[in-house]
Design goal:
Elements lengths: L16 H31 L4 H6 L5 H11 L5 H13 L13 H36 L4 H15 L2 H15 L24 H8 L3 H38 L2 H8 L4 H29 L3 H6 L5 H10 L3 H29 L7
Helix pairs in contact: 1-14, 5-6, 5-9, 5-11, 6-9, 7-9, 8-9, 9-11, 10-11, 11-14, 13-14
Length: about 350
């Protein structure tokens, strides 16, 4: 290589062995967690009164029809046998079939999960985009009028019930001002999304259909539920950011950096915010995992066809298989999201070691 020539292509760094061991250990711990959750769900659901046959038969619910339905669904078998048969199917990738509509649980979940992803990600974008700057600004103006206002606003955001906030947003922006739609994911009378079938409507409208009007309609339907769902994470992120930044601002290295004449923006970006990110990333990961589990109240209020709405209907219908499998899948997603958050610690702070 000629003198003075710089290496353009470099080999990507591999994960340290300690990180790999940490990942493997966490994945192994996932097995007993999911086993315990599945056992709890099976026992708990069967202790509740009623079964799917009552919802299926409705007014035709006679003793003979109930017995025939329970036999067809295997509900007349001993509980331990039902559990082992269900877990045997899970280990083979079969999460069962809904008792009410005879559709595979995996198919139903994959159909509805994109809607939940769009809603959860949008809510977290609002929470992060507003919460972190708000927390930083409040920390740098500690005990000021702005700090007090931000603290009170965050307390209100955490305390206000989602169902009340959702209905309030619907009334103000939908009924009173007529600015935004109050239900659904798009205008059923104007658009159709039967082509790609991904159920990621933002992606389909903008990238696949190349239709800005469709995209704008999807965004308008997304704003209110995302605001309602993102309020609590926003308040939590803002409070954690404020506390973390206040703690870092009192460190000696921050005062030293300012004494050296570094600009306030450089001190904030390189020393303050980066060292305060660990608790912020932790709470963001926890909130994201919870939101991906499906926001039942938000999806019900705004008629959002996601996982939360699906599980709510399954609970109403006493559809045991859907509830059990849905809980297992969402628990797995929650653990994986938090595992990714834990792995990110080493990149945010190289002093952290996984041992």
């Amino acid at each position: 290589m000629p003198p003075g020539t710089r290496h353009i292509f470099t080999q990507q760094p591999e994960l340290p062995p300690s990180v790999l061991k940490f990942i493997v250990r966490r994945l192994i711990l996932l097995v007993p967690i999911l086993f315990g959750l599945s056992l709890f769900m099976v026992v708990f659901l069967h202790l509740l009164p009623g079964d799917p046959c009552g919802a299926i038969l409705g007014e035709h619910s006679t003793a003979e029809n109930l017995a025939r339905c329970q036999h067809g669904l295997g509900l007349d078998k001993p509980l331990y046998q039902q559990y082992f048969e269900y877990m045997s199917g899970v280990f083979h990738g079969d999460f069962g079939v809904s008792a009410t509509n005879k559709v595979s649980v995996a198919t139903s979940f994959l159909t509805r999960f994109p809607a939940t992803i769009e809603l959860a990600v949008s809510a977290m974008i609002i929470a992060i985009g507003v919460g972190i700057p708000l927390g930083v600004a409040a920390a740098k103006r500690q005990y000021s009028l702005f700090d007090n206002f931000a603290t009170v606003a965050s307390l209100i955001g955490i305390s206000i019930p989602i169902f009340f906030l959702g209905l309030l947003l619907q009334y103000v922006f939908g009924v009173w001002l007529h600015w935004l739609p109050t239900a659904g994911r798009y205008d059923l009378g104007a658009y159709s999304y039967d082509g790609a079938g991904t159920n990621f409507l933002l992606w389909e409208s903008l990238v696949i259909d190349h239709d800005p009007a469709k995209f704008a309609d999807v965004v308008r339907h997304l704003i209110l539920p995302a605001l309602a769902l993102g309020t609590i994470p926003l308040a939590v992120v803002a409070r954690i950011t404020r506390s973390a930044v206040i703690e870092v601002l009192s460190e000696d290295y921050v005062r030293t950096a300012r004494a050296k004449g570094l600009t306030s923006r450089r001190v904030d970006s390189r020393h303050v915010l980066r060292n305060a990110m660990l608790p912020i990333v932790t709470v963001i990961g926890l909130q994201t995992g919870l939101l991906l589990g499906g926001a039942v109240l938000t999806e019900q209020i705004f008629s959002w066809g996601g996982v939360g709405n699906w599980l709510f209907q399954a609970a109403v219908d006493k559809d045991f298989v859907v509830i059990q499998s849905g809980a297992l899948i969402l628990a797995t997603i929650f653990v994986v999201v938090n595992l990714l958050v834990d792995i990110s610690y080493a990149y945010l702070n190289p002093r952290i070691r996984y041992s």
